[in-house]
Amino acid sequence: MTISGPSIANLPDLAPRTLGEPQAPAQNQFSTLLQDVDRSLKQADASAAQFAAGRTDITNAVISAEDATVNFDYLMALRRQALAAYQQIMSLTY
Fold first, then answer.
1. How far apart are CA 38 and CA 68, in angstroms?
2. Is the CB of residue 47 less than 8 Å from the CB of residue 60?
3. Residues 11-43 as b or e (16 or more Cβ within 10 Å = b)
4. Run of H or E residues at 70
5. DSSP string for residues in 4-35
6. What pLDDT does residue 41 have?
7. Are residues 7 and 36 in contact, defined by beta-carbon separation less than 8 angstroms?
8. Which terminus of the chain is more solvent-facing, meaning fewer CB atoms within 10 Å of its CB: N or C?
9. Is the pLDDT of residue 21 over 60?
């Protein structure tokens, strides 16, 4: 069984850029991240169902569940940071 989670390489580059550099749309990168998390959650559900049916051992089921938990927690941390940044921008006075 291979454990795969969201890749940090899929996140947008936050380093300052010059005006001439093309930028990849962040929406595509976050969409890919969401798909990765969804895939890991579905894999954890499938592993739990296989364990319940007696087709796999508990180790694989627990590893899949923990992988999905870590991926989901990572996504929620990114969400909290994005919301905090949005709230901070909205609180600026002009």
1. 9
2. yes
3. eeeeeeeeeeeeeeeeeeebeebeebbeebbeb
4. helix 58-90
5. ----GGGSPP-S---TTS----HHHHHHHHHH
6. 96
7. yes
8. C
9. no
Q: Closest Cα to residue 4, out of 93, 51, 68?
A: 68
94 pLDDT more than 60 = yes
CA distance 42 to 46: 6
d(Cα 45, Cα 51) in Å, to the nearest integer? 10
User: Are 34 and 75 a contacting pair, CB within 8 Å?
Assistant: yes
Instruction: Read off the DSSP letter of residue 55.
Output: S
